[in-house]
Every structure is written in C-alpha cells, then in structure tokens.
Amino acid sequence: MYTVGQRYLSQLDPQLGLGIVVETQARRVTVAFPAVDEERTYATANAPLSRLLFRIGDKVRLADNQVYAVIKVTETAGVAVYTVSTTEGHEIEVSEVALAAELELNQPQQRLLTGQIDSATLFETRYKAVQHLHQLDQTEVRGLLAPRTLLLPHQVYLAQQVGTRHAPRVMLADEVGLGKTIEAGMIIHQQLHTHRAKRVLVLTPEPLMAQWLVELRRKFNLRFDLLNQERMDTDDNPFEEAQWVISCLDLVAKQERLSEQMVSEVWDLVVIDEAHQLEHADPVLKQCVNLLCARARGLLLLTATPEQLGQEAHFERLHLLDPQRFASFSDYQTSEAQYQRIDQAIQSIEAGTGADLPFPVHGSSTDAQVRYLLDFYGTGRCLYRNTRASVAGLPARALHPHPLESAPNGTAADDLMQQLYPERYETDDNWVQAHPKVTWLVQFLKANKAEKVLVICGNASVATALEDYLHMRAGIRSAAFYEGLSLVERDRAAAYFQESEHGAQVLVCSEIGSEGRNFQFSQHLVLFDLPLSPDLLEQRIGRLDRIGQKQTIHIHVPFVLKSAQERLFKWYAQGLEVFTEHCAGAQRLYDQYAEELRDYCLEQNNSTDFIERVAAATSQLKASLDAGRNRLLERHSLDSTKATQYIEQIKAWDDSTTLREWLELASNALDLDIDPLDRDTWIFKANEHTHEALIPFFQDDAITGTFSREIAASREDWEFLTWEHPLVTETLELFETDTLGSGALSRLRLPNLPEGTLLLEAVAVVRVLGQSRMDLKRFLPRTPIRLLIDAQGRNLADALPPEKLHPRLENLPAKAAGNAIKQLREPLLELISKTEQHAQTLAQTFINKAQEAFTDHIDAEIERTTLLSLAQADEHRNNELATLKQERDTGYAALAQSQVSIHALRLIATHH
Ligand SMILES: Nc1ncnc2c1ncn2[C@@H]1O[C@H](COP(=O)(O)OP(=O)(O)OP(=O)(O)O)[C@@H](O)[C@H]1O
C-alpha cells in the first residue's frame, strides 16, 4: 500500500536519490525525486521501488542536513515518524517526509533491503580485499614492501626499527656510501604508509636537492615538492600548503620571512642531510634549526662523519635530537667513557660468566640483559652507525701513489696551506701549463681512455682552471662540477659524466662534488690534492666506494716528491692507513695530532718517528674502538638475525602469487584491462567503464609494472608492483570506502533443507578508529569476521566455509532479486539483527586480545624505561615514562572503542 509522504528508492536507479510518494491512484503511484527534480509514475503491481525505513540506532539525515540518531520508530497514517535525539540531548519527532532527498545508502543492510544488489563475484572480491588488508595491517615489515631497493640487512633492520616508532628522533650515521639516503627514504615511506606522519620536510645541501627528489620519486614512488630558489622567490609562503617538501637550509636562511614560515609549520618528520655541516652555519641559521628541530615531531639527522668537526659538535647534533637526554657535554663524555666496561659486561653475559659486573643488570634472559645494556649505553636508541666492515659486498680499494719531480717553488716555507695547495694562491690560470700533476693527469687520462675518472680538488678555481685545460688544450672530454654552477648545470655535468658512450671521460670537482653524490659507475678517483680532514677524505673516496660499486676502485694520489704534499700523503697512507681501509677513529687522531702534523709537513720538528708513532696510535685506537664504543654501536645498529627475518618476510610478500590473483580479481571488479607482457610484467589500461577512483593513475595512458624486485631495480621507468604500490592499495581501499559488492543475493541447491530456507552470509569487520599516529592497527588489524546465519540464529560459517559454499551458489537476475527482497523483508530484518548480535560477540574477543597485546607491549616499554630511569637517576626518563603511561591509557581506550560493522551481506535462498 503506497501512501503519500512515504519514502522510496528506485531499485533500478538509485542515483535518483530518495523519492517521496506524491500521488496514488488505483493502479499507479507517482513518486517525486527532489534530488534530481524528477517525477516518475509506476504501475503499483510491479514498481521497482523499495521503501526506506530506518531502525533504532540508524542515523538519519534531514532536509536541513542535520544528522540524528533514531531512538524510536512509530507510524501515523502509514507514514513513519522517527524520534531522534539532538546533539543537545533533546528528543524530537520527525516525519519521514522531512528526510533529505540526497540520501547515500552506504550500509550493506540498507542497500540489501532496498534491493541494491551486486554480483556474487563482487561480493567475494570485497571479502578478499578485507582479508588482504587484515594480513597487511599486521605485518612487521609494513611500509618496507614498496621501496625499489635491494634488501640489504643493515638498511632493512635499521629502517624497521626506526620506521615503526612513533615520531622517531634518530641520527643515521652509517659510514660513507652505505645508503643513508635510502634508509631515510625507507623510514619516510613507512611513516607515511602507516599514517604516522603526514607532512615531511627534507633539508639537503642545495647541490643534493635534485638527487633526493629523483631518489624519492624513483625508489619510493613519493613525489616531493622541490622548493628551490625560484619557488622561494615566487611563492608568498612556499611551505604553507606543501605536504612533502625538499628544501635547502642555506636558501631558507637567506630570508627571514622564509625561515619563519618554515619553522611555523607543523612537521611530522624533518630530515636533515649532511647534518655535520650545521656546524659551519651562522648563528641565525643555527637558531632556525634549533627551533625547527624542537618543534618537529620526528627528526632524522644524516651524516657519514658525525665527528668530522669534533666531539662537541657531535654532541650538539645529539642535543638537537633529544635536548633533555643530551643536556650536558661533560655528562655525555662521562657516559662515553663507560663503553668499554659495558662491552665487557655484554661479553661476559653472553659467555655465561656474568659475575663481577660493574653495575646491576636487569632482564630475565641473556637477550633481555644484553638489550638492557645496549639501551643503557649513552646514545642507545637514537644513534645508528653501520660500518663498512659489517656490510658485505663492498668493493676493494687499491692505492696508486704517483710521486712527481718538481722544481722547488718559492712559496712561503712556513705556510702549510701554501705548501699543500700552491695552485689556490695563483692569481691567474697559467699555472696549469707546466704543472707536474697536470702533466701526469693528462698522460694518465690518455693512457686510460676507456675509464671514467673522477678528479677532486679542494677548490673551485683550481677545478675550473684544470678542467678548462683538459678540455681546451688537451682535448679530453671533460666536465667541471663546482659551486659556481647552477643546479641545472651541475646535474647536466654529472649526467654528461655518467653517459656511457659519448659522455665525458673525466669530471673535475671541487669539494662540493665530494658529498652525497653517486658516482659508483666510475672506478678511478684522482685526488688532485689531499684535504687535511680525514673525514673529508673519506667523503671523497665514498663517491666511488659505495653500495652498487661492483669493482675494485683505484685511488690515485699525485704529489710532489720531498714536499709537504708527500709528507701529508705519508701521514694518510702509513700513519692512518685510510686509503685502502676505512679508519673509524681517523678524525680523532687528526684532532689530537693536528699541531704535530703541521710541523711534520713543514719539516719544522726533528721527529723522525712521527709516522711510526701515528701508526701505533692508529692501531691502538682501532683496537680500543673495536672493543668498546664501535662494537656497541655496531651491535645496536644491526641485529643480523632480525634483519634476516624481516628480509624473509619481505621476500615472502614479493614471491607470493596472491598479489597477481588479487590484481586479476580487482581488475575484473573495477573494469581495468590487464595485458601480461610475461609472467612478471603486466600492462594495465583503463577503459570507459573503469572505476573513477582509478582514473588518476592513468594520466599517461597505460601503466607497465613488474612484480620482480630485480627487474624493477634495472627498469626504473616501470612501476614496481607490490602490495604497497598506490594502484594496489587503491584497489584494496576502494572496497573500504565504496559500497562495491556490499550486498548480494544468491540461490543454493540444497535438497535436504526445506525449499526457500534463508541463510544470511555476512562479512563484519572490526576496526580501531582514531589515534592513527599510534598505529594501533598493529595490535588490532582490520579483522574480517565471516558469518552464515540461519533463521534459528545459528552460525554455520564453519560448517560451510567459502571454498565449499561459494562455488555452489547461483546468481539471480537483478529484477527477480529486487522482487524477492521485497517479499523477504521481514525475515531478512530478523536475520540481519541476529547477524549483528553474533558479530558483536565475536568482535569482542578480537578487541580483548588486541588490548592484551597492546598492554603487554607498552608495559614492557614502561618497565624498560623504569629500569633505565632507576639506573641513571635521569629526570628525562621520567618524562618519557609519563608519556608512555599516557599512551597506554589513550591506546587502551581507543581499542575499547573499536567498532564492528557489517561490511557485506549476501542473502542465500535454498531450493531443491
Ligand atoms: N638498498 C639499495 N638498493 C639499491 N641501491 C642502493 C641501496 N642502498 C644504497 N643504494 C645506492 O647506493 C648509493 C649510496 O647510497 P646513499 O646515497 O643513500 O648513501 P649515503 O650513505 O647517503 O652516502 P653519503 O654518505 O655519501 O651521503 C646510492 O647510489 C644509492 O642509490
């Protein structure tokens, strides 16, 4: 019986919105659809209309857009009256006439009841999607699947440890060339992927901005915004809207307005590359960095040479990370002095001879005790430093000294800089003409035409004069790379050098070429001069000696015989032995011997055994570092067992065929065309039916993607298809946000049940809401609960699992389905309410378990911090404790508020 004022939906055309009966005649009914301003008249006998009735607990939206919860349903002359409660807590009565016409029916219950039926396949795809999300939510390696990187243990371990933290504040100090940029990228990717971070600011030296942009794009599929000089000049506030930004501190610091704008934004994660350079910054810039670091939630400081500018400078960087913990330099030094004792303690615990420890050790197992000690160690969780020694697969280094004869020059005998770098003091470029090093270099290049050679000299004017000569006079294909060039010119020079066939044979760099750049396609490094700082020397060698270098690298050092240059070479080659092997403590030795070294180079002391003494000190320092600090840092920086486990997990995700299966299913459901190139590489294309949410991925027509990590590494123009690729996550999440497949109706031949028996198959999902930064999904992943409820309220899900049930189900034509639903309304309502009760009960078990796991986890953290605060009587630990306890409450409460909702419903009617 249709009555004027009742609300109906068109089963065939839900886009019409919510209709209202405006006229009834003997056999006809007229319905107005205000949302589209249309009226339609139907024959009452078979009108494809479904009545929309709400139930207690449903939310209704009125024409004035207010949304209320229904607390009572009554009826006046065939028209429903809803009693709703307002936000102020008043109860008001509203007639269904007042409901909004633009009604979105998102709940599967409503969709099914109003006859909006999807196919069986869509229903099953929807179920699959949430099963996959369930697996993905709980993996330990979340955010580490998509990066297009080789799986190197030291990187994977570090990234997993840091990337899963809430607002990590860490110094990444792996030795040169071990992949700090990659590690930072992995951490950024994890933080974004798990919604721990939304806004990220990367600050790099200007010359490295473009390289970061490209690495983040190619390896991590992250499109950062490059705030270069031009953007800074043209945008009123370039920082305001941008979510993911690469910028440069020196550029920002040039204008007060910019530093203020940058600092006043809220950043979830700030990354500062080549952080040791902060030491040279002027006070204004330092002030800006201090403010920025204090306000940023997470902070990553990257430096290969943390102590290049001394211990105190290193301490200052640590202070930026954690001002409370690293409050005083003298305390820091005291704790540094403990390393050897702690290392010994760890060794004796591991050897099972745990007696005579110099301090109390907590923890119930060997592992726990070792972890406690590693924590105890001053820089514990906020410093990671992997050494070349602990990373497999790096190239060997070969040293080639090139002693040269030279006429004595008349430079001031007591000026070390003039002795070492006479070219820098020349007033014009004529020195190149008859310079022994230049002559040697030209010969060397001509004799090794097939080799790419990187030449580094400490100074831009020397570099340009030298390159000019090579290029113009000696006819050698060359490029220069120095601070006077614009960024584009620098990139062009680097690209010209990299080009294999017609590229430059030689790239001549000033010192700026020695940091951060990737030149591992070359195997020859010429050190035209030697810097005084060992760390700077290591940075130079690191251009070639880095991950990805497959062959021995050759380090060429030309120097003038019997000069300060030769003596400096000896200091490096025989004293510190840094050319062929990295020496971790070299910078400290330099700090210690700087005076004597100067005198030695200038032949101003009579010490004949200087180099021998330095060599002895070097081996002693190496031994003591090995025994103390470095070994602790190394152990903390890499746990090989865990690294292997993480890598195994990532590989398992890489290798599983489920991604291919999912993509086939999803493409089917969302109308995407797949054209497999081969087993590992597929081409995706959109067509006119493709789901609109996927269209933005197809701006460039088709997408070619490979499932193979190996192929992806060499084909950066192809997408790397993983469970975390945006196209894949979009297909999964679409089933979370869209109603696709949420309601279905099927028939099942089951002769031993009375004809017309009804079963309701349901997928309910438990979800934790809010607190996304805490990433509570680790404890409560989106959890699908499958139910199969019969009229008696029994759950037959286990008796009839999907693999048994689904193949036997038959689809119903849409029209028949609509009619059937109308007739089955009452029993369906019954089934739905029983299903909801079951889902509630089952969900509670998952929620309880999640709360337990969460409390276990955070209690362990609290215990650990308590022990440390007792041991260290450390004020700062108390703050950390308070925060943890607060997190415990917030997290627990958020988990308690988790909700279960019906995600998909299928009504199944049996027949004989
Ligand atoms: N896991 C990886 N897979 C593929 N390439 C990698 C990986 N790790 C590092 N690389 C490559 O190795 C080189 C060194 O990495 P990166 O630039 O991150 O090192 P770094 O430690 O920052 O060096 P530096 O100390 O010179 O700044 C780069 O070319 C990088 O692309």
From TrEMBL:
**Top-rank taxon:** Bacteria
UniProt EC number:
3.6.4.-
Which source organism does the UniProt entry give? Aequoribacter fuscus
Query: Which residues of the sequence carry a binding annotation for ATP?
Result: D174, E175, V176, G177, L178, G179, K180, T181
PROSITE patterns the UniProt entry points to: HELICASE_ATP_BIND_1, HELICASE_CTER
Stored NCBIfam families: PRK04914.1
An example GO BP is:
regulation of DNA-templated transcription
This protein's encoding gene: rapA
For the protein in the UniProt heading, the enzyme class is: hydrolase
What Gene Ontology molecular-function terms does this entry list? ATP binding; DNA binding; helicase activity; hydrolase activity, acting on acid anhydrides
Gene3D superfamilies recorded: 2.30.30.140, 2.30.30.930, 3.30.360.80, 6.10.140.1500, P-loop containing nucleotide triphosphate hydrolases, Tandem AAA-ATPase domain
Does the keyword field hold Cytoplasm?
Answer: no
Q: Which Pfam families does UniProt cross-reference here?
A: Helicase_C, RapA_C, SNF2-rel_dom, Tudor_1_RapA, Tudor_RapA
Q: Give the residue interval(s) assigned to the motif DEAH box.
A: 273-276
Q: Tell me how this protein assembles.
A: Interacts with the RNAP. Has a higher affinity for the core RNAP than for the holoenzyme. Its ATPase activity is stimulated by binding to RNAP.
Q: Which InterPro entries match?
A: DEXDc_RapA (IPR057342), Helicase_ATP-bd (IPR014001), Helicase_C-like (IPR001650), Helicase_RapA (IPR023949), P-loop_NTPase (IPR027417), RapA_C (IPR022737), SNF2-like_sf (IPR038718), SNF2/RAD54-like_C (IPR049730)
Q: Which family does it belong to?
A: Belongs to the SNF2/RAD54 helicase family. RapA subfamily.
Q: Which residues form a coiled coil?
A: none
List the keywords (alphabetical): Activator, ATP-binding, DNA-binding, Helicase, Hydrolase, Nucleotide-binding, Transcription, Transcription regulation
Specify whether Iron-sulfur is a keyword of the entry. Answer: no
Q: What is this protein called?
A: RNA polymerase-associated protein RapA
Q: What is the protein's known function?
A: Transcription regulator that activates transcription by stimulating RNA polymerase (RNAP) recycling in case of stress conditions such as supercoiled DNA or high salt concentrations. Probably acts by releasing the RNAP, when it is trapped or immobilized on tightly supercoiled DNA. Does not activate transcription on linear DNA. Probably not involved in DNA repair.
